[in-house]
Amino acid sequence: MKDESFYASGLNFSCQRCSSCCRHDAGYVYLSENDIEKLIAKLETDRDSFIGLYCRLVKNWNGNKTLSLKEKSNKDCIFWESKKGCIVYGARPLQCKLFPFWESILFSKDSWKMASESCPGMNLGKHYSKEEINTLLEMRQGEI
Ligand code: SF4
């Protein structure tokens, strides 16, 4: 059962741009219609080409089919490049923007702690109140 009490006083996070969350690990980056439109504009392409080159169809947490970004064979994000990092950073999907304020990570103190072991930005820097965190959660729910 979800336990919000551990972030009643808020949480700290400031991305250190280490790219650890973009690389080496298999995972889904679910795309909303808004994400797709922004990425198409950024890449100056069309919808069919974008989906063919960069997307795969996967099941989301509800069992519904959803577009997700492809990964490279080494499990790096399709948009992560050596020396450049994320090549669509300004148009990156909302899921990436909202990390680490995801339902799965905010589920409990333990899930937050586990995620923080691979993200050096968690528990550092900018303070987010509980209300701000819940607003970020709602933003995601409103898009997907
Ligand atoms: S792992 Fe954390 S600190 Fe590193 S890029 Fe991702 S969000 Fe930023």
Structure explained in plain terms:
The chain has 144 residues and is α+β, with helices and mostly antiparallel strands. It has one domain. Helices cover 32% and strands 17% of the residues. The chain is built from five helices and six strands. The strands form three sheets. The chain has a two-stranded antiparallel ribbon with strand order 1-6. A two-stranded antiparallel ribbon has the order 2-3. The chain has a two-stranded antiparallel ribbon with strand order 4-5. Strand 4 (80-81) and strand 5 form a beta hairpin. The two termini are 22 Å apart. Residues 15-21, 99, 119-121 line the site of iron/sulfur cluster (SF4). Residues 15-21, 99, 119-121 line the site of iron/sulfur cluster.
Topology diagram in text:
Blueprint (H helix, E strand, L loop, with lengths): L10 E3 L19 H11 L3 H8 E5 L5 E5 L10 E2 L3 E2 L7 H5 L10 H8 L5 E7 L1 H14 L1
Antiparallel strand pairs: 1-6, 2-3, 4-5
Bound molecules: iron/sulfur cluster.
Give a summary of the structure in a few sentences:
The chain has 144 residues and is α+β, with helices and mostly antiparallel strands.
Can you tag this structure with a few keywords?
144 residues, alpha+beta, two-stranded antiparallel ribbon, 5 helices, globular, binds iron/sulfur cluster
What proportion of the residues is helical, as a percent range? Answer: 25-40%
How is the main sheet built? 2 strands, antiparallel
Integer count of domains: 1
Number of strands: 6
Which ranges are low-confidence, i.e. pLDDT below 50, for 5 or more consecutive residues?
none
Along the chain, the helix and strand elements come as EHHEEEEHHEH
Categorize the overall geometry. globular
**Biggest sheet: strand arrangement:** 1-6
Question: How confident overall, as mean pLDDT?
Answer: 95
Hetero groups: iron/sulfur cluster
Counting DSSP H or I runs of 4 or more residues, the number of helices is: 5
Instruction: Provide the gyration radius in Å.
Output: 16 Å
